[in-house]
Amino acid sequence: MTHSRARGVYLPRLADAAASSMTTYGIPLLVLGTTNSSSLTGVAFVLAWAPRLCTFALAGTAVDRFGPARVFRLAAAARALVAGLAVPALAMTGAEVAASLVMLLAACAGCLTQFSFIAAESIGGAASREADGAAHRVQSVLLSIDQAAALAGPAAGGLLLQWAGSSGMLAVISGLSLLSAAIAPSARHMPGPTAGNGPAPQGWRTGWSTLRALPPLAWLVGGLALSNLTLGFLEAATPVIVVKELGRSSASVGVVWSCAAAASLLAVAVCRVAIDRWGLSGVGRWAALVTAVPCFLIAHADSYPAYLVLAAVFMAGDSMLAVVLRTLRSHLIPAEVFGSTLSVTVLILLLPYPLAGILMAVVDPAAIRTVITACAVVQAIGLLCAFTRGTRSRPRHGKRR
After folding, report:
1. What is the number of H-type helices and E-type strands within the chain?
2. Whether the Cβ atoms of residue 65 and residue 1 lie closer than 8 Å to each other
3. Cα–Cα distance between 379 and 382 in angstroms, integer?
4. Is the dihedral of CA 365, 383, 143, 59 positive or negative?
5. By the 8 A CB rule, do 291 and 314 touch?
């Protein structure tokens, strides 16, 4: 059983997560290198995230209708085809056409990544149910895989872009996607299509009404959405700041996010123990402080080491807030409406990313640090409300959690 789980669940998840991580952080670098424009880098960030929002419900419906294994295999194979075709296309076109092709690549990759992500989450959930008493072990392995991909993906993408060019990076993304499609579990080894719980609009209404009836969760989701606006703008602006202002290479951009992923992994491990001792509210307040303070300082960081350290601390605090959200969500949302409410919360948390890309596209490069400061102020206000107004009616969690 362990061998089959490693072959059918862990290895495809690892290959897909690595390809997704390289796509998410590598394509903005590719846009910057192709166009030398911070505005177009922001547009590419929008094009990478907007399809994910538009196809969120569609991906879930496809998984329910056709099964997670089939959707995962098709999405990974399609991403391999798109990235593979982009290699000769970019080599044979001029600068203006290449810029348009890179933008199209960002949109297609974002859409296909959403499908493979939803399908991979469904496959992991099915493996957890089959494991029964060992479900927590399956989830811990899946979480470690995601963190490892987030750690290695940005650095690998930056290095490949620097030493092998856009063709090398896209070829590796295509190869990893093709590998994940080839070793994905077959449909007969996974749960088949299932009937939905009702029409999609009814599910959205149920999720909205449930979220409004849970003020602690609603306030925390709102605060983290504002925090994600700051995070999204930093992700879109980091290539411009590191390459243009600090004079570093594209590989240095990947190192920033790899160090941030390592700090996030450590923060998640610490957060589990801290919640047992100090509870969700106490850890949440400290995490909000750890997230907000570095954001103000990042706007004034004038050296690469300082920027790297502050970004890592910021991401560590953001990961701790994510643990608090997941724990509170599991406490408060009733099981019978968990799926619809989860979809609404994820949509709210993802909406700021394309907004951050639009902001990056319209802002003057000289005003990027001013915008970061403004985002930090908005983030601090949102988190302050989440952990003051949102915790008034929250019961105290015991030592058991």
Report:
1. 15, 0
2. no
3. 5
4. negative
5. yes
**C-alpha–C-alpha distance, residues 365 and 110, integer Å:** 25
The gap from C-alpha 330 to its chain's centroid, in whole angstroms, comes to 20
Sign (positive or negative) of CA dihedral 303, 357, 229, 347: negative
Q: Tens digit of pLDDT for each residue in 43-66?
A: 776 776 677 777 766 776 677 678
Q: Position 238: which residue type?
A: T
**Could you tell me what percentage of the chain is helix, strand and coil, using 3-state DSSP and rounding each to the nearest 5?**
85, 0, 15
CA 395/CA 101 separation, integer angstroms: 52
When pLDDT is averaged across residues 93-104 and rounded to a whole number, the result is 78
Q: How many CB atoms lie within 10 A of CB 400?
A: 5
C-alpha dihedral, 350 to 235 to 300 to 325, nearest 10°: 40
State which amino acid sits at residue 401. Answer: R
Please give the Cα distance from 92 to 185 (Å, whole number).
37
Q: What is the mean pLDDT of residues 341-355?
A: 80
Distance CA 376, CA 226 (A): 9
Question: Which residue do the tokens 């009404």 mark?
Answer: 209
The dihedral region occupied by 247, where left means phi > 0, alpha psi between -120 and 50, and beta the remainder, is left
CA distance 118 to 295: 31
Would you say 315 and 263 are in contact if contact means Cβ atoms under 8 Å apart?
A: yes
Neighbours of 220 (CB within 10 A): 28
- Residue 329 and residue 341: Cα distance in Å, rounded? 9
Indicate whether 179 pLDDT > 90: yes
As a residue count, the chain comes to 401
Helix (H, G, I), strand (E, B) or coil at 164: coil
Q: State the Cα–Cα distance between residues 344 and 396, nearest whole angstrom.
A: 25
**pLDDT higher than threshold 80 for residue 21:** yes
Q: The tokens of 308 are what?
A: 């790297």
State yes or no: pLDDT of 126 exceeds 60. Answer: yes
Amino acid identity for residue 15 in this structure: A
Is residue 190 classed as helix, strand or coil in its secondary structure? coil
CB 49 within 8 A of CB 109: no
* DSSP at 299: T
Is 201 exposed, middle or buried, given 0-12, 13-18 or 19+ CB atoms closer than 10 A?
A: exposed
Q: Cα–Cα distance between 85 and 76 in angstroms, integer?
A: 14
